[in-house]
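Researcher: I need the complex structure. Ligand is pyridoxal-5'-phosphate. Inputs:
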Amino acid sequence: MSSNDLFDNDHHLDDDETNVNATTITTYTQKYHTSSLCKSLNHLHIDILSEFSHHDPTIARINNGSFGSCPASVIEAQKRYQLRFLKQPDDFYFNHFTQSILRSREAVKTLVNAKHVDEISIVDNVTTSAAIVLQHVMWSFFDSKFKPGDTAVMLHYAYPAFKKSVEAYFTRAGGKVIEVKMSYPVSSNDEIVTAFKNALELGKSNNRKVRLAVIDHITSMPSVVIPVKELVKMCRSEKVDCIFVDAANALGSVEVDVQDIGADFYTSNLHKWLFCPPAVAFLHCKDPEASKLHHPVVSHHYGNGIANESSWIGTRDYSAQLVIPEALEFVDRFEGGIDGLAKWNHEKVVEMAEMLVKAWGTKLGTPVDMCSSTAMVGLPACLGIMNDADAMKLRSILRERFKVEVPIYVRQAKDGEVDPVMGYARISHQIYNTDDNYYRFRDAICSLVSSGFTCN
Ligand SMILES: Cc1ncc(COP(=O)(O)O)c(C=O)c1O
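Model: Output:
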């Protein structure tokens, strides 16, 4: 049974067969719930086609990883908040806004197993969390707690914009950055753990102190699930002052338990894999009292704790932050809720990735247990993908000629490699995807190969 059967329109349940409202009655259960995957997930009461009918139907969007997606019912809820504010802004601001933000923070607190709601701040995106935490680290240099030459350790594959924040705050204040080199393709967690350990050793050399560790939970490009708990533990035992996890892609695609992970700061977007509209993220702070974080945009709540500071950064549209509970209601309509969806997307993306590498005679970039709801799929070497310009060229051709939206990664070849696969596609799976989306991608690449296309 393929996920295309999700979109079979023959079967309509009567309203009273369901607990959900009449606009979201399923259209596809009859055939679909014989599938074993579906039994575990049981997508029974959601009309996925209409929840995502605003997506361009001509495009095979297998790139949920970049910008996420937002169902119609959550967009409707967001509009209601926007209109409530526009209707009577003062009433909304004085009588409802604070409770609504608190409701969102409470929902996230439960979801990520924080100890207390004060540990949770709602911010625009992970880039904002980076500015909050790194500005705080910068002040430790100004307060002479840290010394010029003290180090930060982060993965070479850290998100480029995040690296810029480290440069803007940490390096400018006098810190030195050690990048953890990782070879690619990756074959095990041990490779990453060993590379991180070596970088920490280097960071401590010459009597320096490692002040900051930035650890991705899932790297962006290439996409790799990092053994975050193990790395946090290692940093803790090495007495790294500030352990900051960039988990931009994590919430909704892998399990997130902030107590279990144990970092000082952990941040994830909610607009990527949790169906919130752009843009909203949370920042978890293990010890908000002691760490004295401040939001870089200062407003009325300055000095009242980072959660309060973040809740008002001047007049703007806060609706994306207010619909977190509604996005979670959407998620909870699936059996197994957030975990069920993550498992389903993982299983589907692995199935589709394996189908693609089989068709193209290539390999995955990581073992399947290092994939989340995204997977890296080797592209045929004969496409001649050698550098970022080639990757961008292929991506544009796929979008414009074949209507496939997928990001392409290019790695450096190792010395002496013969006919290396250097290009990898990062495919994502989210509930709106159908198997046909991936077959279209497979056929597009096969047609480019058979026409003799090369990037260079
Ligand atoms: C690993 C990682 N960190 C940070 C970000 C930045 O997220 P945002 O642009 O929502 O702030 C991304 C976005 O894709 C990411 O993948």
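Model: Summary of the prediction. Confidence is low (pLDDT under 50) at residues 1-40.
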